[in-house]
From TrEMBL:
SUPFAM superfamilies: TPR-like. InterPro entries: DUF924, TPR-like_helical_dom_sf. This is DUF924 domain-containing protein. Pfam families: DUF924.
Length: 144
């Protein structure tokens, strides 16, 4: 928890300078809160930070210096984004990676954002109203 709070307070800025440490920072921002704060709005509070770290890492081709399995953790912040451009980028990244299962999963996320502009399964946790169309969708799709 202390490492997460330090990272959120910009005390780990130097971690962005190397592929492995940037990857660790992306995971810290993207994955840790989803597990530490599950069921709380805090589980999504550092999504933007994770996406920023991942985008900077990709700008420096850090993903190409890592294994395909590691690369995926740079791509997940785009998958978790409710921004359609991030979703398009995610699909492209996974398709280039050549992992059909992950590519399909990325397309599923993309299609939800394209349709609703957000992930309806987050509505309750984030205190958002759910539309009738979203409620119908959620009957068959509880989330990821």
């Amino acid at each position: 928890m202390a490492a997460y709070e330090d990272a959120r307070a910009d005390k780990m800025e130097q971690w962005k300078q190397q592929p492995e440490s940037a990857l660790a920072l992306a995971i810290l921002f993207d994955q840790f809160p989803r597990n530490m704060f599950r069921g709380s709005p805090r589980s999504f509070e550092s999504d933007g930070l994770a996406r920023d770290v991942a985008a900077q890492a990709l700008d420096h081709d850090f993903d190409r210096q890592l294994s395909p399995e590691q690369r995926q953790f740079f791509y997940l912040p785009f998958m978790h984004s409710e921004n359609l451009n991030d979703q398009k980028r995610c699909v492209d990244l996974y398709e280039k990676l050549g992992d059909e299962f992950a590519s399909d999963f990325a397309r599923q996320h993309h299609d939800i954002i394209e349709r609703f502009g957000r992930f309806p399964h987050r509505n309750q946790v984030l205190g958002r109203d759910t539309t009738l169309e979203e409620a119908e969708f959620l009957k068959d799709h509880a989330g990821f």
